[in-house]
Design a protein that fits this description.
It is a single chain. It is built from 21 helices and no strands. It is mainly alpha-helical. The chain has 3 domains: 185 residues, MFS general substrate transporter like domains (Growth Hormone, Chain: A, Up-down Bundle), CATH 1.20.1250.20; 56 residues; 228 residues, Growth Hormone, Chain: A. Helix 16 runs antiparallel to helix 20. 47% of the residues are buried.
Amino acid sequence: MSQPHHVHAYDSKLAEWAVLIGSMAGVLMQALDTTIANVALPHMEGSLSASRDQVTWVLTSYIIAAAIMTAPVGWLAARFGKKNFLITAIAGFTIASMLCGAAQNLEQMVLFRIIQGVFGAALGPLSQAVMLDMYPAEKRGNVMAIWGMGVMLGPILGPTLGGILTDTYNWRWIFYINVPFGIAACAALWIFFKDTARDSSLKFDWFGFAALSAGLAALQLMLDRGVSKDWFSSSEIVIEAIIAGIALYLFLVHMLTAKKPLLPVVLFKDRNFVGGLVLMVVMGMVLLASSALLSPYLQSLGGYSVTQTGFLMVPRGLGVMFAMIFAGRLTMRMDPRIIMTVGAGLMVWSLWDMTDWTPSLSVATLSWVTFFQGVGMGLVFVPMNMVAFATLSPQLRTDGAGLSNLMRNIGSAIGVSLTTTILANSVQTIHSHLAAHASPFNRALGVNGPSMMMNPQIPFGLANLNSLIEYRAQVQAYSNDFLFMFLISLPVFAIIWLMKRPSFARETPKMEVVD
């Protein structure tokens, strides 16, 4: 049976599911590994004999490598075929995970994390393109929901899984766990995945790639190290900002003038796709920053253990799954912009509610607010992906998927660094405001026995008072962060309604498949 190469018809349900699960395993491993190491960082400090400042390179190196390698995914897939590329990416990622688990010092760890990021970069966009290729427009709702589940549950459940593995075994298992899944995914794709056409005449845009890589690396370094280096008062950050600015400017000019740039300019002429990119940045900011804030909040202020914190993060994951079940089908039946608006409304409401939180918050309140936050994210994510790709031509899909994954990563980096900066600055400011009231002239601090415990003129009293003020300052600072995330989520409503409503009508079948 001869088949045109642009249609992927799988003869059996088994083959179709094997390819789906194989490419999903790749996404899930990659998404989990963005956050799974966060919980284990303190445990790694000892084994790798690194300071707290140095050990964060375990996260930074991975994120930078993944960001740089996301852009050329479309070109590589077109040049070498999706099958070879996807299997190579999963195999490389799996081997790098194994090496990360076996790393003996910080240098080895950072090197292996860079390799892991290089191979991991392709997993998200490739699997997304593979799934969009496999199904016609009217069936894409459910498959995008499955893909979205992998992308969104990964970062949410990463800390939970990381916490359990670190507590039960040790931190090395957060990397070893990828190995069996990686091997299984490679096998499934090797046997069942039908390759796509290759074009060996394609030329690689080295200048565009170099400019974009330099710009992204400098931007990520600036965002990552800005907090600890006090931003622009440090010459390192200023240099990184200048490099990022110049390199990204050169990349833009080159993209608009070159004959065959790294990213086709046509992508930016599609209004829905550009709207989807902007939403991706905001979703990346809120999804990862809220996860990054909640763990330390519950651990250091709420006094929960690593494993308990992990389980407290579960309701949000359940919310995402719950929404994903309906989101795809709803998108097919009604205007996807309405669904996204409802989702954005839930997300914004939950962030507003979090501005009033204190660590003595009941587990029930915590659970249902984060559950609805998850539902909101799910309701935005699936229709957003479908609307963004609805009007994009199939040839541009892999490039588009690469770009939207890149935007999500940049959003995450910006979100995490902004919220960390606001947190650090708020703690200092609020601490000094509160401390102003703790003077020896404050009668309440010197009258009776119990208050002597807080008397600033006695050393232990001073220490007690300071820790109380510090605690209060942190609680208020976290509220400021949640308020900031609430504010950056507001423009989402306008962006949603700037997108056009696409029709997911049945396309004319290109071919008949005979079983």
